[in-house]
Design goal:
The structure holds two protein chains of two kinds.
Chain A lengths: L3 E3 L11 E4 L3 E8 L1 H10 L4 H7 L2 E10 L5 E4 L3 E5 L2 E3 L4 H10 L4 H9 L5 E4 L4 E9 L5 E9 L8 E8 L7
Parallel strand pairs in A: 1-11
Antiparallel strand pairs in A: 2-3, 3-4, 4-9, 5-8, 5-10, 6-7, 6-10, 10-11
Chain B lengths: L1 H29 L8 E8 L4 E4 L4 E3 L7 E7 L4 H16 L5 E8 L3 H11 L6 E3 L3 H6 L6 E5 L4 E7 L7 H12 L1
Parallel strand pairs in B: 4-5, 5-6
Antiparallel strand pairs in B: 1-8, 2-3, 2-6, 4-7, 7-8
Classes of the chains: A alpha+beta, B alpha+beta.
């Protein structure tokens, strides 16, 4: 059974970060332009082959804060992204790892890359803020997110359902 | 007779009071310290051992810290909360007895020059180990960066700090002082 449903109109703001707020959590989304991400990884010595792939992706930095009094459970398997009603697949961090391994990318860069990603699963304690980058296939259309979070010490609480329709991929300035 | 009976009662009362006081003091001394915001118990058993070099090339083995509490901190210079937290770790390290708390910083997969420059500006009195390929960090699996683990003198992981904390604030200082005094 789905619990409270919070829709787009929650507290979406036009300025960055795009923010969704409810009584138990706050989610902030900051779309990152390819040039910005390319520069970030270049400054950390990432090989060009890796950067060329990353620059073609859609990066959105996500920060989640548990503002409630009970544990909140993030599981990206329970996040669905869609464009015009059609589901778009997010690449799991394991898929990225396989890709880097196949390219013989040094472990140092594989490790840094993983730490810049949002965790696939995490239990957020009250007051805790964690986040990281989400990588989606690039699109110039608006992206919808349908996200569910379990709550409570053992995920026994009322689930939280977030729907947000204003996500987008940032593009380089002309 | 009546006076003597009263004297015995007073003596018994005082003895009982003293015993109760001793019991109370004992329980206070043995109690777990109150957890400040962002610190949680994390009893996962023995700390996984590792060996790494620091930025000066000195070898470090975690087992060598037995007998002291260890403040094990995973960080990277590109991580915003790490940059904010590092000066507070340095401030904490200056106020505590190094014989009782050993600070072990582990940089995650960055170049030596990057670490050197960063610490030189942000926390010049601290040094860091270099997890050059990130594999020790993977083994420890912190929740994110930064993450701090507190390891007791017997080498058991006891607490975990969630995200960046202001270690020089009173609540954290009191908590750690109480830990290392036990």
């Amino acid at each position: 059974m789905l619990g409270m449903i919070f829709s787009v109109a929650l507290a979406a703001q036009a300025s960055l970060p795009l923010t969704v707020v409810n009584e138990q959590l706050t989610i902030e989304f900051t779309p990152r332009a390819p040039e910005q991400m390319g520069s970030f990884y270049e400054a950390r010595g990432f090989p060009k082959a890796m950067r060329d792939i990353l620059k073609k992706q859609c990066f959105i930095t996500v920060g989640i804060t548990n503002t409630g009094r009970q544990k909140i459970w993030l599981n990206l398997d329970n996040w669905q992204f869609s464009v015009n009603g059609k589901v778009i697949e997010r690449q799991h961090r394991d898929q990225w790892q396989q890709r880097w391994q196949a390219m013989d990318i040094p472990l140092r860069y594989q490790s840094t890359f993983r730490w810049t990603l949002i965790p696939e699963t995490l239990d957020y304690l009250p007051g805790e803020r964690e986040g990281g980058n989400l990588i989606l296939p690039f699109t110039s259309e608006k992206i919808s997110l349908d996200a569910r979070f379990a709550t409570g010490e053992n995920e026994e609480g009322e689930p939280i359902h977030i729907r947000y329709d204003q996500l987008y991929c940032a593009e380089d300035a002309p | 007779m009546k006076y003597r009976h009263r004297l015995v009662s007073v003596q018994s009362f005082m003895l009982l009071s003293t015993l109760l006081m001793l019991l109370l003091l004992d329980s206070v001394a043995a109690r777990e310290p109150e957890l400040p915001f962002g610190i949680r118990e994390y009893s996962i058993g023995q700390a996984p051992n590792f060996e790494l070099e620091d930025i000066d090339g000195a070898e470090f083995n975690l087992k060598s810290t037995r007998g002291r509490w260890v403040f094990l901190h995973f960080w990277a210079s590109w991580c915003g909360p790490c940059r904010k937290e590092m000066p507070t770790i340095e401030a904490l390290s200056k106020t505590l007895d190094a014989d009782k708390l050993h600070f072990v910083l582990v940089n995650v997969a960055e170049e030596e020059d990057t670490i050197f420059k960063f610490l030189g500006i942000v926390a010049p009195n601290l040094t860091s180990l270099m997890d050059t390929d990130g594999q020790i960090t993977e083994m420890w699996s912190p929740r994110g960066l930064p993450t701090t683990f507190l390891i007791d003198p017997e080498g058991r992981v006891r607490y975990q700090a969630v995200g960046g904390r202001e270690w020089d604030q009173a609540a954290y200082l009191q908590f750690i002082r109480l830990l290392i005094s036990q």
